[in-house]
Design brief:
The protein has about 300 residues and is α/β, with parallel strands linked by helices. It is built from 12 helices and 9 strands. The longest helix is centred in the C-terminal third of the chain and has 20 residues. Bound molecules: phosphoric acid mono(formamide)ester and norvaline (NVA). Phosphoric acid mono(formamide)ester binds next to helix 2.
Length: about 300
């Protein structure tokens, strides 16, 4: 099994991963870090773009589960000199037990998975970031006790993180409202698929409309990796979608503040909101570790 898109998971599988992540978190908080479930198993991480959380949380997860991990930069591999993805996938399948790839193009990860004979995990592409959604659902459940029926307002760029969250919301019964300017909407096929599954997805240009009475306010960078050439235009177009002290007042009083990180203070979020009482941003980052351990166990445990 692979995790390329959040839609690869059934409701039961997604719920199972969140529950196992919660159990692993409790165990670790109780002082038990090391275990042996993945002894003798090796995960390769391939990065075509930078990463802090994804890289470190996957590395620590493998170590703590007793397995091995190899982190590789695209340009250090022959991939950087033009070796094709498909041959790389076939070769790595004979060495390691699973591969996580962070790539610019979603079809790079799809191609890798179609030629690999081992599980492949999407560690972020231009279209999706399903591992982030696992941690996000775990975080929302931790604070709201449930995800079904919770209203999440997404503010700003309808990007990869937003796309996977829309899918995760549809699978779990969470309601999504996306506030973004024209041209920054989430992927149309993902929104359609979510709606076909019965998911509630509202897309609006009005940040207050999305945030009004919401249970969660979520934002992400205005300039994703790969969008750097459009930096100035994006900052202009998205300036009315900042998650700031004014916008927080229209949401529920106990609305969670979420962000997948890295943050760009003064752009998509203010320092005050980042560090406010309702901010769960650092728990969200921590939950990457627990949720990915659950995923690795699902994909690799014998
Ligand atoms: N949220 C996230 O994936 O962070 P990194 O880019 O640091 O991995
Ligand atoms: N949308 C951001 C998320 C980073 C984790 C990006 O793709 O750069």
């Amino acid at each position: 099994m692979d995790l390329i898109s959040i839609f690869d998971l059934t409701p039961a599988e997604l719920e199972g991963l969140v529950e196992r992540g919660e159990a692993l978190k409790r165990k670790r908080k109780g002082g038990v870090k090391a275990s042996h479930e993945l002894e003798g198993r090796t995960l390769a991480l391939i990065f075509e773009k930078p990463s802090t959380r994804t890289r470190v949380s996957f590395e620590v997860a493998m170590h703590e589960l007793g397995g091995n991990v190899i982190s590789l930069n695209w340009n250090e591999l022959q991939l950087g000199r033009g070796e094709r993805v498909r041959e790389t996938a076939r070769v790595l399948s004979s060495y390691v037990d699973a591969v996580m790839i962070r790539a610019y193009r979603h079809d790079t990860v799809e191609e890798f998975a179609s030629y690999a004979s081992i599980p492949v995990i999407n560690g972020l592409t231009d279209l999706e970031h399903p591992c982030q959604t696992l941690a996000d659902l775990m975080t929302i459940k931790e604070y709201k006790r449930t995800v079904a029926g919770v209203t999440v307002a997404w503010l700003g760029d309808g990007n990869n993180v937003c796309n996977s969250l829309i899918g995760g919301a549809a699978i779990t019964g969470m309601k999504m409202r996306v506030a973004c300017p024209k041209g920054y909407e989430p992927d149309g096929r993902i929104v359609e698929r979510a709606k076909r599954m019965g998911g509630e997805v509202l897309i609006t240009e009005n940040a207050e409309e999305a945030a009004g009475d919401a249970d969660v306010l979520y934002t992400d960078v205005w300039v994703s990796m790969g969008d750097e050439e459009e930096r100035d235009k994006r900052k202009r177009d998205l300036k009315n979608y900042q998650l700031n002290e004014d916008l927080v007042t229209v949401a529920k009083e106990d609305a969670l503040i979420m962000h997948c990180m890295p943050v760009h203070i003064g752009e998509e979020i203010t320092e005050g909101v980042l560090n406010s009482e309702n901010s769960v941003i650092f728990e969200q980052a921590e939950n990457r570790l627990h949720a990915q351990k659950a995923l690795l166990l699902k994909l690799l445990e014998k």
